[in-house]
Amino acid sequence: MNRYIALQKIVEVGSFTKAAEALGYTQSSVSQMIASLEEELAIRLLTRSRTGVRLTLVGAELYPFIERSIYQYNAMLEKANEIKGLETGYQIHNPR
49: which DSSP letter? Predict the structure, then answer.
C-alpha cells in the first residue's frame, strides 16, 4: 500500500523529493517504490521532466483505481480502530 500512497503524494505535489519529504522517506526509497510498482504492473505510470512529474496517459487511466484502493485501505484501518475501541470500551464499561 505504501507504493500507492507514494504515487498519490507524487501526483499531488508533482515531485519525488517533495513527496518523500511529506511522507518521511528518502527520495531514493520513493523512486524505488515507484520503479517496483511500474515493474509489477509493466506500465510506466509517471513522466519525469524538468518542470516536474506527471501521470502518463496510462497512469491517468489507472490512477482512479489506485485512489479507490487507498480509500478502501483507510476505511479498513478506521473500521479496525473502531472495533478495537469498542473492545476497549467494552472492557472499561464492564469492570469486574
Answer: E
* Mutual angle of helices 2-13 and 57-93, in 10-degree steps: 120
Residue 55 DSSP label: E
pTM of the model: 0.82
Alpha helices in the chain (DSSP H): 2-13, 16-23, 27-41, 57-93
Structure confidence by residue, pLDDT tens digits, 13-58:
999 999 999 999 999 999 999 999 999 999 999 999 888 999 999 9
The sign one gets for the Cα dihedral 31, 33, 39, 41 is negative
**2 SS3 class:** helix
Asked if residues 34 and 6 have their Cβ atoms less than 8 Å apart, the reply is yes
What is the reported pLDDT for 89? 56
